[in-house]
Write a structure and sequence with these properties.
The chain contains seven helices and eight strands, in the order βαααβαββββββααα. It is an alpha+beta fold. A hairpin with a 4-residue loop joins β4 and β5. α1 packs across α2.
Length: 237
């Protein structure tokens, strides 16, 4: 049985390679060197380690054309795999951390190195990188069936949550900082709709458009990196 550490080892060989949102990776091509997007990279690493499709539109059929997406990772985590707390995934080499996609948008998925770090296809600016789990928003950790995982002791500091992430929620997130964000988006020709201080679908779409143009993780969520790029100041604690 393949080990979680095998996924990390496979992934690390591709640090530095190119990222393109929507790129397709043939899962059965062991020599593929990109371009990647985050879900294609994660699913390709699973296939290379275990010979199974996971997080794809169809987890059966031709692995050369299987389409991976964070929404399919969410589906499989709930129906096929095992969801675990972010702290547990942080301490487990080869576990995955997933940010669910909002309607009409994409999420983000990374591979845990078991020590608070990640390997991930990050963005068009950065490509495939080693990064960190802390101070980023995650919805769940995931263990993929058929992988032998060995978890270490959790490290609370490695899973610190971000101070603020503006995103689609019900009821909507509101406030002065959302209004600042909307004004900054409009100034950059990314139309957020009405400047009303409410983080709705049009504002999320405008954030996504800005992130694409700026080479950031394009998930439609405005965390510290996106707010900094837009020169929106976080409120003081």
């Amino acid at each position: 049985m393949s080990k979680g550490s095998d996924i990390v080892r496979i992934a690390r060989k591709h640090i530095g390679e190119r990222y393109i949102l929507g790129a397709s990776a043939p899962k059965n091509n062991a020599g593929w060197t990109g371009p990647w997007d985050c879900a294609e990279f994660a699913s390709w690493c699973v296939y290379q380690a275990a010979g199974v499709l996971y997080g794809c539109l169809k987890n059966s059929g031709d692995p050369a054309i299987a389409d991976a997406y964070t929404g399919y990772w969410q589906r499989d985590a709930e129906a096929l795999g095992k969801k675990i707390p972010v702290a547990a995934a942080t301490a487990t080499p080869g576990a995955f951390l997933l940010r669910y996609p909002a309607a009409g948008l994409v999420g983000h998925i990374v591979i845990s190195d078991g020590k608070g770090g990640t390997v991930e296809a990050h963005s068009s600016n950065d490509g495939v990188i080693a990064s960190t789990i802390a101070n980023r928003r995650w919805d769940t950790g995931i263990l993929v069936p058929g992988i032998d995982y060995v978890a270490g002791p959790p490290a609370p500091a490695a899973v610190a949550a971000p101070a603020l992430v503006l995103r689609l929620r019900k009821p909507p997130m509101t406030g002065a900082i959302v209004k600042q964000l909307q004004r900054a988006l409009k100034a950059r020709d990314c139309n957020p709709g009405k400047i009303d201080g409410s983080y709705g679908p049009q504002t999320a779409a405008a954030v996504h458009a800005f992130q694409l143009g700026a080479g950031l993780v394009a998930d439609g969520e405005a965390g510290a990196q996106t707010l900094k790029a837009l020169r929106v100041k976080l409120p003081r604690a």
